[in-house]
Amino acid sequence: MTTAYLSTAYFAPVSYYMALLAYDRIVIEQWCNYTKQTYRNRCHIAGANGMLSLSVPVVKPDTLKCPTRDIRISDHGEWRHLHWNAIASAYGSSPFFHSALYSRLMTVLGWVPNSKCLCSMMRV
Fold first, then answer.
1. What is the CB neighbour count within 10 angstroms for residue 84?
2. Which helix (H) or strand (E) holds 54?
3. Residue 3 is inside which H or E element, if any?
4. Residue 46: CB partners within 8 Å, gap ≥ 6?
5. What does the alpha-carbon distance between residue 116 and residue 79 come to, in Å, rounded to a whole number?
6. Is the Cβ–Cβ distance between 83 and 44 less than 8 Å?
7. H or E stretch including 42?
8. pLDDT computed for residue 52 by the predictor
9. 46: part of which helix (H) or strand (E)?
10. DSSP class of residue 34?
């Protein structure tokens, strides 16, 4: 049995998902020290005008070194709304967006579905 140890990631690059398929067992690391400006809370998506960077705001303790498991997602601001609009704008016309990705993203980003308006899907 082969094992891959991966860090946490927010919309990770394709190579991350290839590793998920290539190994029998995946362990998501939670004890390593959290590093700023990595794929742990950032991603890049292909927008209409080029690459678009998205960043999830996090709250961490005031210590210099902090394990990843102690990091919390911030509820400050409307980042969920902004991210959803960016993702829907970039990938909304792709064939599998609404069938496969749509409901999963809604769950991950914490929104309750509403068929009338994408903007009203926030539960914040």
1. 19
2. strand 50-55
3. strand 3-6
4. 52, 90
5. 21
6. no
7. strand 42-47
8. 94
9. strand 42-47
10. P
Q: Is the pLDDT of residue 121 over 70?
A: no
Tens of pLDDT, residue by residue over 64-110, are 788 888 888 888 888 888 888 898 888 888 877 765 566 666 666 66
The token pair that represents 2 in the structure block: 């082969």
The residues, any chain, with a CB within 8 Å of residue 56's CB and separated by 6 or more, are 10, 41, 42, 73, 74, 79, 83
Q: Angle CA(81)–CA(6)–CA(102) in degrees, nearest 5?
A: 30
The per-residue pLDDT for range 24-44, each reduced to its tens digit, is 998 988 888 888 878 888 999
Question: How does DSSP assign 88-122, residue by residue?
Answer: HHHHTTSTTIIIIIHHHHHHHHT----SS-GGGG-
**Cα–Cα distance for residue pair 112/117, rounded to 1 Å:** 11
pLDDT at 55: 92
Per-residue tokens: 67: 């394990």
Give CA–CA dist 64/61, Å, rounded: 8
d(CA 76, CA 99): 30
* Residue 41, number of CB atoms within 10 A of its CB: 20
**Which pLDDT does position 102 carry in this prediction?**
63
